[in-house]
């Protein structure tokens, strides 16, 4: 993905409350290897439930705040991330929901989906035995990942406008 600045990040969220924006921890933008990112995802270390997911849609930067559901999935089973389609131990995939309005409080509707717990799908699709991470394979998985992320944030954005 193309590099982003702190200023761009602060104004790109479609469903964040003012408080969430004020308290948003900045990801390590200088350490980010942009060429190996389809989207930028990070968690708030102080509030273990909150996560941030940002990507470019053409020239527009789109961000969505997500919250992980309390309690994880049952250990010992496998689960699939709905964004990168990687199958992983269930403890590494979580149900996240995106609130459909930038209003304070936990009320209101939301859209939920299963995502890699650390929001690091871009890293996951580049990790594995060599035959699974050939440049061609990573490129096609990356394109599919970005397509799914775009559809997810688009649903949140549209519904937020109507909410
Ligand atoms: Zn994933």
Give an overview of the whole structure.
It comes from Agrococcus sediminis. InterPro entries: EF-G-binding_C. Pfam families: FBP_C. With 163 residues, the chain is α+β, with helices and mostly antiparallel strands. The chain has one domain. Helices cover 26% and strands 25% of the residues. The chain has a five-stranded antiparallel sheet. The protein has a two-stranded antiparallel ribbon with strand order 4-5. The longest helix is centred in the C-terminal third of the chain and has 28 residues, at 135-162. It starts with 5 loop residues before the first helix and ends with a helix. The model has no long low-confidence stretch (mean pLDDT 91). Residues 81, 83-84, 86, 115-116, 121, 124 line the site of zinc ion.
What structural class results from the helix and strand content?
alpha+beta
Number of domains: 1
Number of distinct helices = 4
- Tell me, briefly, the overall form: globular
* E-strand count: 7
Beta-strand residue percentage:
25-35%
Helix content: 25-40%
Cofactors, ions and other ligands in the entry: zinc ion
Q: Give the C-alpha Rg.
A: 15 Å
Strand sequence of the main sheet, in spatial order?
A: 1-2-3-6-7
Order of helices and strands: HHEEEEEEEHH
Major β-sheet profile: 5 strands, antiparallel
- Stretches with pLDDT under 50, minimum 5 residues: none
What is the end-to-end distance?
30 Å
- Overall pLDDT metric: 91
Domain Elongation factor G-binding protein C-terminal treble-clef zinc-finger: 8-156
Protein name: FBP domain-containing protein
Organism: Agrococcus sediminis
Pfam families: FBP_C
């Amino acid at each position: 993905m193309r590099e982003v600045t702190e200023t761009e990040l602060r104004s790109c969220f479609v469903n964040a409350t003012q408080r969430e924006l004020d308290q948003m921890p900045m990801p390590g933008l200088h350490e980010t290897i942009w060429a190996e990112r389809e989207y930028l995802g990070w968690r708030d270390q102080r509030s273990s439930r909150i996560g941030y997911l940002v990507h470019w849609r053409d020239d527009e930067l789109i961000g969505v705040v997500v919250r992980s559901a309390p309690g994880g999935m049952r250990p010992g089973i496998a689960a699939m991330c709905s964004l990168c389609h990687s199958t992983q131990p269930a403890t590494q995939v979580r149900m996240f929901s995106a609130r459909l309005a930038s209003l304070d409080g936990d009320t209101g509707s939301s859209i939920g989906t299963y995502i890699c717990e650390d929001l690091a799908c871009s890293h996951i699709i580049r990790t594995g035995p060599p035959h699974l991470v050939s440049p061609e394979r990573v490129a096609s998985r990356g394109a599919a990942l970005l397509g799914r992320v775009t559809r997810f944030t688009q649903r949140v954005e549209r519904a937020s406008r109507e909410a």
